[in-house]
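Work Package 3 (structural annotation) set out to generate three-dimensional models for the target panel prioritized at the project kickoff. During this period the team completed the workflow that converts sequence records into discrete structure tokens, so that structures can be stored uniformly alongside our sequence database. As a representative example, we reproduce one entry of 174 residues exactly as it appears in the project archive.
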Amino acid sequence: MQDEKMQDAKAAGGGLKKAVFAGGCFWGVEHLFSQAPGVLDVVSGYSGGHLHNPSYEQVCNAQTGHAEAVEVTYDPAAISYEQLARLFFELHDPTQLNRQGFDFGPQYRSMLFYGNEDEQAVALELVAKLKTKGYDVVTKIVPATVFYPAEEYHQDYLKKHPGHACHLPTKRFD
């Protein structure tokens, strides 16, 4: 189904874009982003560290500096970067430092990796809005770095293992 959506978007002449977010366990982040209209593909992986092509075990043992992250491929004609960033801030708790729920450690930190100045401005504006609403946001807003896809068994994990849940989305902007 995802391949069909990407082919349809490409055939329509759409210039697909990518965005990278880290919001705790990548299984739940991947699952929730994949349900958003306009999102064509989501890949679980690692970003923000110093080791080339890290493994899950290395990331979990805090040896790499990476966070569990997702790379979102989307059609900007169907969903904007701002809508993706808003969803990011609502599908995880951006006030928790180095954890999400029962998962803790630096690999679960909240990070938004921007690809250009416009994306950075969107992210900073959303954080400012959340702060005016009383949220003590700890999300790091940083330039995009290399994204490394996680091992195959992590991809589409919640589709392969129904009944598991990692995140409890919360409306924060409306």
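Residues 2-160 form a domain with the Peptide Methionine Sulfoxide Reductase; Chain A fold (CATH 3.30.1060.10).
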